[in-house]
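Notes from the pairing session

We agreed to fold both candidates in a single pass and log them together. This is the raw record for the first candidate, unedited. Please don't reformat it; downstream parsing expects exactly this layout.

Candidate A
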Amino acid sequence: MSSHLEVFKPAGRELVPLGGERVTLGKASGNDIALEHDETVSRLHAVFENLGAAWSIRDMGSRNGTYLNGEKITAERVLHSGDEVRVGKSRLIFWMVHDPADGRRDEQTVSAQPLEAPPRLTRREDDVLVALCRPLVSDDPFPEPASVKAMAGELFVTEAAVKQHLQNLYDKFAIPTEGDRRVRLANEALRRGAVTLAQLRDSAT
């Protein structure tokens, strides 16, 4: 099983394989992942540690903190496929790639043809997912999934109804309870092909 980071930079998206015992992240050019364009990132901002069967992330006393799925971390945290990391103004997504030679079912990465089919959704759940993910195709370099209030307004339903649909979607996609669940759900929906970028662009026009 291998892992990589999807790094969003002004020039576009970059895929960075994770290897060795540790991978450093920061503004200084000597880092394994150098975010020299981002003045809000510390010279050595965070470190990814290889735990063997998994990877973790640790903040190195950075000026602006390290966020995992919207939550500021204060200690080392183990990463799961689809986790979103924010450092300064920069956004990264951690992916784990399943190796069929392992003979095990591990977490899989995003691909043109999703390796793991999405769960069966109702029409309304599908509408909520599209509304949740639509801001991800905006011109904002650091997009956030739609808020419950925004989704309710777009779908002409109550916020309570949106929250209920979201809870059903969290269950169907097995989204952990910690961190920002809307971010994880959006990433997981895109990874598994429940929502496509083309679909979001079409619905936004």
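Candidate B (folded immediately after A)
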Amino acid sequence: MATIQDKLKAFASTTEQVGGQGALSQEELKKKNAVADYSMVAFSLAGKDYAIDIMKVKERAKAGNFTYVPNSLPFVLGVYNLRGDIIPVIDLRLFFNIEMPPREDGHLENMLIVVVGEQTFGVVVDEIDRVVNIQKSSIQPPHPLFGDINIKYIYGVVESDSNLYVLLDIDRIFGVRSPDEEKELADSAKAQMVQRQIEEMQMNVPAASAAPNVVSEGSAPLPAAKKPAAAPKPAPAAAQKQAAPAAPKAEAASEADLKFIADSLQSLTKFSASPLNSGWMQKRYTEWKKEKGQNKTQLQNESDAQSFLKPFYSECTDDWWSEDYAEAIGKALPDNAAKNIVLWNPGCAKGYEAYSLACILKKRYPGAHIRIYAHDTDLLSVSNAPLLPVSSSAAKSWYASYLSTTVTGETTFDKDIKDMIMFEYHDIANTNSLPDIDIIFARDILSFLPEASQKTIIGDFKEKLKGNGIVIVGSNEDISSYGFKKKLQGNIAVYGK
């Protein structure tokens, strides 16, 4: 494994090859390393000083004319051939939404080659300065008032030679969880499991205490309970009052039954019961008991789980939208006179949602430039979405004015609609490096993520959403308990900050 000294020498070597700026002499290296235990590569973005841990930096380079990758995010410049290895290249200025002058053709960019996990990336910056050696103990936590860069991407800040450097967390930028974060997620899941087991055990205590005393072999006999004096025969009203404690036992049994169903849904379909959908779960459980009978509610297989979840899914899921539903969504969208409208559609699947939204947005905001980021982890669906054929029934419906016919006679969406949508394979549980968003349309997808991920992603929603932006989630999901304000537009629930 490379040491800091090896990295210093390697970086100094590539610095000399590129132009010599920032190279350190051996005497300077020895002097710096005498008191320093941490080295970082300093660079600038929009006139401000930043740095990256040198152990993440492989080398520096100057390059241009990157090979463009269709349907990539705006900050991805393309790919670059690094001595036979094809690596993706991102522009850190675009990643952090920092304004920059137009890029000139043939211009060579300053680029740091970084290694994150087992992957190599090119990171374009303004100017690469030098290697700065510091004591790790001098790194201070970031202040929440940093304006240019989201605080979650900052490892810390440090002063050296009268310069204040913002030290970036390159792992977080590229969506890699730290060992501490992985441990925290694992501990959270384990704690939830233990808590669930404790609650189930507690629910069984009343039944156990009502049972006759059972003495295991070799144990001391339990003391006999004192019998109360004989009481007069209760009147009918008193008898009813005496029988009342049976209700809490039945309620506890129902809660335990619902927990078993929730566990089964998690294991069979990855559906996570949480505050996001707790209202629907309670309602559905009541319906399920009536359908199946009191003692036949448990889910035995995936077919049972899908039957339980069938009413959960939003209207027109995985299909072309009805005209009534399209009109309802259109009316729920806010007034917006902006020239650019950005919509995020995580969980776009085969593309029915994204195309329907594109048509609605074109009608709702006729003078705006519209961009839809359509993301999903189903690589096959996302790859085929740009070529999604339109059924004959849909072609005769409200979609008709947004369609065209190919030379082969196939009906498809016209170029204006297709150009609005960027289909991309993307796991929203990782870093969401998107511009500020006007509309987030994420129906039903959150409930199929772990509860810890639900909280993280809803936090991302709040961070990315503009002040007048809205979020639309599944018809049986509710994010009002996560700090969003809920408002009904017709029969569509709309959430804002």
